[in-house]
Design goal:
about 110 residues, mainly alpha, 434 Repressor (Amino-terminal Domain), 6 helices, elongated
Length: about 110
């Protein structure tokens, strides 16, 4: 038996042992940030939900990065941060204003 075959068998044996192990699972509260014990969990959850909606609107409206940045009055680095969910520089109120700028109205 060659080295590669032996390594493959050892890997299969290890994976079979892991498959038989029980893993405890805890139900989510619905807010992953709260589940992780982060401060400001509600605010973080709100900001992510707003960013998901905003990024979905970019796609739905077929906005390229330049048009999206102009519409929201963002710099390219700010737009990149928003699209990559790096939201520390965006208060929730500002994210809500982006929804208005993209034609989404609360009603």
């Amino acid at each position: 038996m060659g080295r590669t075959e032996l390594e493959a068998r050892e890997c299969e044996t290890h994976m079979a042992k892991q498959a038989n192990q029980r893993i405890d699972v805890e139900a989510s509260s619905g807010n992953v940030f709260a589940d992780l014990g982060l401060r400001n969990a509600a605010e973080l959850d709100t900001k992510v939900r707003l960013a998901v909606k905003i990024n979905g609107l970019f796609a739905a409206q077929r906005l390229n990065p330049v048009r999206a940045a102009v519409r929201l009055k963002l710099t390219q680095p700010e737009l990149t941060a928003l699209k990559n969910y790096r939201l520390s520089g965006f208060p929730a109120e500002r994210l809500m204003s982006f929804l208005l700028a993209l034609g989404q109205y609360a009603g």
